[in-house]
Amino acid sequence: ETEDKSVSEASEITNDTRNPIRTLIYIIVLTFYLNTSHTRLSFQESEDGKTYFLKIHVPWEVLATYADVLKIKVPFKTNDIPDKKDVPMSWLCTPYRLPEHVMQPEPDYFTATFDKSKIDFFLIEDKETFFPPSTRNRIVYYILSRCQYSKEDKDKKGIKRLLNNGTYIAAFPLHDVSLLYRYWSSFPCRKYYGEKIGIYFAWLGFYTEMLSYAAVVGLLCFIYGVASFDENIWSKEICNETIGGQIVMCPLCDKKCGYWKLNTTCSSSWQSYLFDNTATVFFAIFMGIWVTLFLEFWKRRQARLEYEWDLVDMEEEQQQLQLRPEYEIKCTHRRRNRVTQVHIHGVLCVCDVYLSRSQTQMCLIIASIIGVIAYRLAVFAAFASIMKDSPTNKLDVVGSLITPQFATSVTASCINFVIIMVLNFLYERVAIKITDMEVPKTHVEYENKLTVKMFLFQFVNYYSSCFYVAFFKGKFVGYPGDYAYMFGKWRNEECEPGGCLIELTTQLVIVMVGKQVWGNIQEALVPWLCNWWVSRNARNHPESLYSRWEQDHDLQTFGQLGLFYEYLEMVIQFGFITLFVASFPLAPLLALMNNILEVRVDAWKFTTQFRRPVAAKAHSIGAWDEILNMIAVFSVVTNAFIVSFTSDMIPRLVYKYAYYQGAEGSMEGYINSSLAVFNITDFKPENRPDDSENPDWFFSSNITTCRYRDYRNPPGHEKPYIHSMQFWHILAAKLAFIIIMEV
Question: Containing H/E element for 364?
Answer without folding.
Answer: helix 351-386
